[in-house]
Amino acid sequence: METAPKPGKNVPPKKNKLKTKKKPRRYWEDVATPTAAGTSPEPPPNKKRKREVRPERPKNTRIPKKSWNSKKRQVQRKSREHRNPAPQGTLSGAQDPFPGPAPIPVEAARKFRRIDKSKKFPDCKPQTQSRLEVAEAEEEVVSVKAARSELLLAEEPGFLEGEDGEDTAKIRQADIVEAVDIASAAKHFDLNLRQFGPYRLNYSRTGRHLTLGGRRGHVAALDWITKKLMCEINVMEAVRDIRFLHSEALLAVAQNRWLHIYDNQGIELHCIRRCDRITRLEFLPFHFLLATASETGFLTYLDVSVGKIVTALNARAGRLDVMTQNPYNAVIHLGHSNGTVSLWSPAMKEPLVKILCHRGGVRSVAVDSTGTYMATSGLDHQIKIFDLRGTFQPLSTRTLPQGAGHLAFSQRGLLAAGMGDVINIWAGQGKASPPSLEQPYLTHHLSGNVHGLQFCPFEDVLGVGHSGGFTSMLVPGAAEPNFDGLESNPYRSKKQRQEWEVKALLEKVPAELICLDPRALAEVDVISLEQQKKERIERLGYDPKAKVPFQPKPKQKGRSSTASLVKRKRKVMDEEHRDKVRQNLKQQQRQQQKQDKDKPTGARPSALDRFVR
Amino acid sequence: MSATRASKSLLALSQQEELEDLPKEDDDDPLNTSEDEGNSDGERKHQKFLEAIVSLDGKNRRKLAERSEASLKVSEFNVSSEGSGEKLVLSDLLGPGKASSSLSSVKKQLNRVKAKKTVELPLHKEEIARIHREVAFNKTSQTLSKWDPIVVKNRQAEQLVFPLNKEPAAFAPIEHTLSGWKARTPLEQEVFNLLNKNKQPVTDPLLTPMEKASLKAMSLEEAKMRRAELQRARALQSYYEAKARREKKIKSKKYHKVLKKEKAKKTLKDFEVLQKVDPAAALEELEKIETARMMERMSLKHQNSGKWAKSKAIMAKYDLEARQAMQEQLAKNKELTQKLQATSESEEEKGNSEEEGEVLVPDVVNEIQMNGDGPNPWMLRSRPSDTRKIEVQKEPEHLPEPVANEASESEEEERPVAGEEETLLKEFEERRQLRKKSELSQDAEPANIRETKDSSSQEMLSELKSLSQKLSRADQQPRKQKVRSVGPGPQGQREEPAEEEEEPMLFQRPERVQTIEEVEELGRDESLQPMELPSHVPEGQPLERNTSDQPSTPKGKKRKEPMIDLQSLLTAKSSSVKSLAIPTAVQEDEEERAQKQMINEAFAGDDVIQEFLKEKRVAVEASKPKAVDLTLPGWGEWGGVGLKPSARKRRRFLIRAPKGPPRKDRSLPNVIINEERNIHAAAHQVQVLPYPFTHHHQYERTIQTPIGSTWNTQRAFQKLTTPKVVTKPGHIIKPIKAEDVGYRSSSRSDLSVVQRNPPKRLTSHHKEQLKKNSAH
């Protein structure tokens, strides 16, 4: 259950998308860092900062070059792809210079590959071989199709580029707003709500709706792009956290005592008393689970589709007030006061993994959208980025003047940290790399201390809830530019939403499937397989699949004497033994080679080394 | 009854009389005719009449002997010679008097009857039925086997569509449809005119006249000739190939030797001729030979390293011939590797070095000389220094040497056949390894310590400062002490806690390179784990328990995956950010406060680490498989309060649990990974291996690609989820017929016939048998 947006089928072009810094670049060129100043080939414009809104058309200088490139590539490929040599004669006898479908570069298709072909199964039956071949061919076809449909991802991520040597962190919001188009500029706004104190916020999954919950009971939901207020109420109780459920029509509010659920009109639908003193909320959209972390130290999973509590897990680590979800595998990460972060799934009573991250308590945790990196900040003023792919080791560490109280990852891997009244945003090199903590990508000052932080999906916007209200700031290149129209469509109508809801409910993933490596579900359960085999052997009294010991066939004319039988038997046995020995030797050699490879060669071996004795 | 019989006999009698009369009459006949010719005609007629009458009776129809003497002049006085114009030939007399006796056929029958032996018993009914069945089975399986490819194809097909008889997709090619089409409107005509002008095809649009002409360019005869030529060439080639193959297969060494010699002679001759005729070319040739020699020098040929050479090396001990062959090889190698210009010098050098070697370390050199006949001068020169080095190393490497020797000895015992060369090589290898090892260990240690020093010097904390001081002290401590601490047996174990305080950092560095022997002596590796951090561990009981409880894991593994030091992991100094926007609240006395807090947190943190390590230890313990103790106290010995079953009993009845797989977090100090199995998720996993797969990895590969529309494009999704069988609703699905798959319809009828009365066609053997049976 990967939640990464799929490549194909995003249909409608997005009009209001914020394209802050668009150059005529293409997404495959995104290796060039947006921050890399001075790398731009164009002469600097007379403006002080080059912060152009993406023009209607890409600049001319690039187009011919690009088209030439692509054409050349195609020609080269053609010669290779000349698999169907039968030229398709047209009526006039002229031939298509580029017959067949357009070729797909191998790298593009590799991204969608799932079978690791390096592992071979040399000695399998022909039937098995044919099945494997079919599977591999299928996978290839599918991946090529997926790569081909990448063409439909028309939108490109925005970026911010300083002039030569200019630090992008120095660029202020006002400058950005000044440079971008009006529609995008309208996405930067401040809500001055000093009365009801620091705000928590949540964007809906489509990125269209925003809900705000003030500590002093103020709850509001709005379509933030059109600024249309859907509801505004005061629950007359402290609001600790607020979260949209699967759609923008329902929102869960963690109030002082219990968990309440409201609809978008502000009508209270449920009061869930089994979840009390909730501090943090997380919603797992594919499982329809609302995970709640309470002051009493319980992590409770509430299935919102049937309204039942799936499990309540006791974390045994005191008050829980740091929680986030891993969008890749729906595992809940909890931060504890003893510096550990624990990973939970509703199927297990114990944490899947416990990681000691900080010497002090953990203040905030965030996981990026691919589930590869986890950022933590602790009381020791450090911010660390961990690798979640099996090793759980810190990749980079940074000490901040003041510890970050809130962390958030954007869809494209930007990391925002709220420290006091300052927001720092770090960007990584390229797409799938962790944010480098060397240099902030953007910084921003707020009018109050940060209390909630979230990047808006599919918009280059970071929403910040603070004691002075709410700030929506522009962060070019934060969000995924292409959305999946069938999955989370910001422009969907009510009807579409309802249909999506039904579909999503039909495809609901059972809660017990949440595990650390979701790919493991596609593996055979070896333990029970072995168990069944053992049971079968016990039942039958013999192993039906065991190799039958060699029994020499009786031969005629006196050749079937006992001695010769024994001899024949012995021969077979010896042959088997020899095979075994041969295999052993091979294995040993392989190990030896491996060891030799592993041995670090200090300096480069010189040719004269052979004479040194 | 009697009356009829009498009448019959009478009739017969009368007939007989008549018959008897006839010849008589015949005898008289010629006389009569001679007497009166006038009556003769009448008489003959009468006779014929009589005959006709006689022949009326069907029973006694007999062919009457007819006189057919042609001569009219028959006289009693002389023999007429008329009609005897032909002479009698002698050969006529030789033939048998009678053409063939009518008895021969009877004889034959008699013989046949005589030749027949006793008749075999007919087979049992069951036997016959069995034979019939067998024949039928063979026949049927033969007929059915032709369906096998179809069955296989259908099984492997991605999709089967029923009913089978599908309409042939008869799409006429567009050219055909267009051929009947005529340009009518002026525009069309114009276009066609243009096309015609350029000789573009209009009616048969695929080929222009030019192309057609070019296609026809090759005439039939030409093609035939060419084909014949090609055939001849191919045939010749195959002959030559066959010949070459045959010659190649010849195993006679003598033959090859002769062949080789001949070749060499021939080339030499050629070369001489070439020298006389064209000296330049000869020079070139010479150069070629030289380059070949150089190439050989560079290559590993004739180095006695090949497969053949190795096998010979093994045999050399016993086989004189093999030894000679090896020596030859070596000589060749020497010859090749010698530098041409400085031959004399190198020889001198060689001699010198040999002498030197003998003087310095006689035994080694002698050994080598004994074994290798053609010593490489390079090797010789380097050997003395080598041995010296070894001697130097022998002191620190005291332990490893005997072990290695032992190993080699044991190997020798195992394979007494191994040649001297091999052992020599092995020795060299061992020495090289030992030297490397020692060098490594010498190098690595200071480097490591330097590293730790670096990291620790960066540390601001006072606590760690003290640690680093200890470390530096430890640095100065000689190596021996370390070895002692690592210590022999259980005594060391007791001492450990005390020692740990002394040199904690040493224990934190498991990646420090140690010789294998030291490690093996260690036995227990707990002391090397970074868990045993010095500061707050309660000494004595709990620690001891821990160390003793944890079974020793193999040392080699530990070294392979260096444990990352937890302390350093958490306290690693990270460069602080000089943020542009510093939070307003912090701006004033940032530095001071940070310092204070850092120290506070550092002291708080130690506790955190300890707690975590303790937790991890507990988790590791809990996850270990438990041994089952089945001892019954008091069973077979005295029981009672305070009495323990004997150690032997306990050992006997303790079922040790198999060692589980290594923990995933064994080299990750800051992580506890739960190894428990998620049974809820496992319930959703595949638990059986479907048929053609023998290993779960194979099956997993086929289910790795997700088929849902969430992960695939629409087309791919449709392709992945196509149904295996598609049926047309409302249609009868008939069984597959031969016509459906392109066979002739006969196959089906064949099959049906065979099934109805199986033993129609039999093999010859069965036929014979059946005939035999049916004969009786």
TrEMBL record, chain A:
Pfam families: BING4CT (PF08149), WD40 (PF00400)
Lineage: Eukaryota, Metazoa, Chordata, Craniata, Vertebrata
Region (Disordered): 1-105, 543-613
InterPro entries: BING4_C_dom, WD40/YVTN_repeat-like_dom_sf, WD40_repeat_dom_sf, WD40_rpt, WDR46/Utp7
Record's compositionally biased regions (Low complexity): 1-11
Location of this chain's protein in the cell: Nucleus, Nucleolus
Gene symbol of the encoding locus: WDR46
Function: Scaffold component of the nucleolar structure. Required for localization of DDX21 and NCL to the granular compartment of the nucleolus. Part of the small subunit (SSU) processome, first precursor of the small eukaryotic ribosomal subunit. During the assembly of the SSU processome in the nucleolus, many ribosome biogenesis factors, an RNA chaperone and ribosomal proteins associate with the nascent pre-rRNA and work in concert to generate RNA folding, modifications, rearrangements and cleavage as well as targeted degradation of pre-ribosomal RNA by the RNA exosome.
Quaternary structure (record): Part of the small subunit (SSU) processome, composed of more than 70 proteins and the RNA chaperone small nucleolar RNA (snoRNA) U3. Interacts with DDX21, NCL, NOP2 and EBNA1BP2.
Basic and acidic residues: compositionally biased ranges: 572-582
Protein known as: WD repeat-containing protein 46
GO biological process: maturation of SSU-rRNA from tricistronic rRNA transcript (SSU-rRNA, 5.8S rRNA, LSU-rRNA)
Residue stretches of biased makeup (Basic residues): 12-25, 60-81
CC terms in the record's Gene Ontology section: 90S preribosome; small-subunit processome
Keywords: Nucleus, Phosphoprotein, Repeat, WD repeat
WD repeats: 355-389
Residues in BING4 C-terminal domain copies: 440-518
Automatic annotation (TrEMBL), chain B:
Coiled coil (UniProt feature): none
Pfam families for the chain: Utp14
Annotated keywords: Nucleus, Phosphoprotein
Cellular localisation: Nucleus, Nucleolus
Region feature Disordered, mapped onto this chain: 1-47, 339-578, 739-776
Domain of life: Eukaryota
Compositional bias annotation for Low complexity: 1-16, 457-471
Principal subcellular localization: nucleus
Protein name per Swiss-Prot or TrEMBL: U3 small nucleolar RNA-associated protein 14 homolog A
Biased segments, Polar residues type: 544-553, 568-578, 744-755
GO cellular component: small-subunit processome
Stated family: Belongs to the UTP14 family.
GO biological process, one term: rRNA processing
UniProt keyword Nucleotide-binding present: no
Compositional bias per record (Basic and acidic residues), positions renumbered to this chain: 383-400, 415-440, 509-527, 765-776
Stored InterPro entries: SSU_processome_Utp14
Listed Acidic residues bias regions: 17-40
Keyword field contains Cell membrane: no
